[in-house]
Every structure is written in structure tokens, then in C-alpha cells.
Amino acid sequence: MPVITKITQQKKDKERYNIFLDDVYTFSVHESNLVKFGLTKGMQLDNWEKEDLVYEEEIQRAFNRALHYLGFRMRSEYEVKEKLLQAEFGETVIKEAILKLKRLGFLDDQAFSEALLRTQKNTSDKGPNAIKQEMKKKGIDPEIQDEVLEEYDPEEQLATATRLAEKAASKHSSIAPAQLKQRIQNALQRKGFSFDIIKEALSRVEFEPDEDEWTAITETTGEKAWRRVSIKYKGYDRKRRVKESMYRKGIPFDRIDAFIEKKELEEDGE
């Protein structure tokens, strides 16, 4: 049976020790396993003990790899598992490494989800549906998702959605109200807000332009449609297509008719 004849500390990694069996270097172990297995000079090692050591060393290697990965930012249990699978650790080894990480407080999906919620709310202005999708991608248990998202107060959601709507309305004031509302609604849905929150947020925003603003919106929308359609069409076909285009952009029919009449008079006067 092989005998440990020498144990030396590695120079580059002070936490690892080289094990010599019968005066020949055989393997290295982490100091935790050195203590756990009580490895000392003169100790005999049978094959079972060597296999146990190798297994524990794999767990330690996986643990250290995960710890390095976690050093950059918080991760979910699923993310750590995927990273270790990519590094070609076995399922059983990964399971043991993850258990150790959780026991020592390095992995906590509840805390991770709470931090994710805070980050997404404060830096990305996302609603609960979008944040839920982020949690799902991170492999968070559905029960934890629901529990954490309950912390996202509806009033806070409404305040965020209203602020985003007001900002968009101010930035795109040259767009007709109907089209602008639809555009903002679509944007808020992509942000992950519910229909009820979006509806209430839009009700708090003033969209109706004054007369001068309506004139500018009609002129801008109409001129674009007139130039584009005039490339291929004239007469009745042009008139019909311009009217359809302007209506899709949210311009009322009376303003459309007035614009087209003005354009036709301009052409007749040329």
C-alpha cells in the first residue's frame, strides 16, 4: 500500500500541497482536504481513499471556479451551474460545489432576485413583466419570482410609467395624439408594464395639441405623405392615398381635407 513520504506547500498557491507517495509526486490537494483527510507523512493510502481525495478535489476546484465567477457580480444558482457545466465539471461535483456555496452564503437566489429587481427598477425603468422575464432567464424559481415582485408597489410602477409617458409625449410633440399614444403604449408594454398601469399612466398625460401645434403636425405629416405619394400617383389616386396615409398617422379628416384642398389649389395656381 502506498505511503505518503513527503508533503510540500506549493509556492504559487499557498493553499495547495503536493503529495508524494513512495518518494514520487502523485497529486496535489487543497489545504481543506489535507485537514479533512488527516494527511500526514508516513500515512498509508489505499485506492478508496485516493478516489475520495480525487472526488473532493474536483468539488474544491469547482467551488473555486464558481467563487471566481461570483467575484465579478452576483449570480443565480442556474448561472453558476451553467458556467461549471461549460468548464466540464460533472453533475454530481457541481451539485456538491453549489451546496457548499449556498451553505457559506455565496449563492442565494432570493437575495439575487431582490438585487435584480432594485437594479432593473432604478437603472432601466422596467416594469414587473420585463423583470420577471429577466428572472426566468436567470433560472429563478417561479415562487421566488412572484414573492420578490410583490415588493414592486403598483404606485411606484404607475409613477415610473407616467414619467416615461410624459417624457415621450414631450419629446415627440410633433406626432398626432392618437399615433403618439399608441407608440407610447407599445413602448411601455415592451418595458414590462401591465395594461392597467399603462392605461392609467396615459390618462395622466396631456396629449391634445393647441391649434398652432395641430397646424404644424398636419403640415409636417401631410407634406411627407404628399411628396411620397406624388412620385407614383396623381389626381384621385393621389388624393385617396394621401388621405389614407394621414389618417393612419392620427390626423382628423377635417384637417386632412383642408390640407389636400390647399395643396390642390397650390398646384392649380402654378
From TrEMBL:
UniProt entry keywords in alphabetical sequence: Cytoplasm
Subcellular location(s) of the protein: Cytoplasm
Coiled coil: none
Location of the RecX second three-helical domain: 108-149
Domain RecX first three-helical: 62-101
Domain RecX third three-helical: 155-202
Stored InterPro entries: RecX_HTH_1st (IPR053926), RecX_HTH_2nd (IPR053924), RecX_HTH_3rd (IPR053925), Regulatory_RecX (IPR003783), WH-like_DNA-bd_sf (IPR036388)
Record function comment: Modulates RecA activity.
UniProt family annotation: Belongs to the RecX family.
UniProt protein name: Regulatory protein RecX
